[in-house]
Amino acid sequence: MNVLKRVFSDKVLWIAGAAAIITSFISPPQLSDINWKTITSLLSMMIIIQIYDYLDLLKYYAAYLTRRAKTQQQLVFMLANLAFFGAMFLTNDVTILTLVPLFYKITKSLKINPVYPVILIALASNLGSIFTPFGNTHNLFLLTHFNLGISQFFIMSLPITIINYIAVFGVTKFFPKDKIELHKLPEVDLNIPHLTLTLGVTVVIFLGIFSAIPMWASLVAALLLVVFINPKILQVVDYSIVLIFMCFFIAVGNINRDPSIVNHLSGLIQTKTGTYLTSIITSQFISNVPTTILMSKFSTNIHAIFLGTNIGGLGTVVASLANLLAFKQYRYYFKGNAGKYMASFSIVNFTLLIILGTIGFFLIDLIPT
Question: Which parts form a coiled-coil structure per UniProt (predicted)?
Answer without folding.
Answer: none
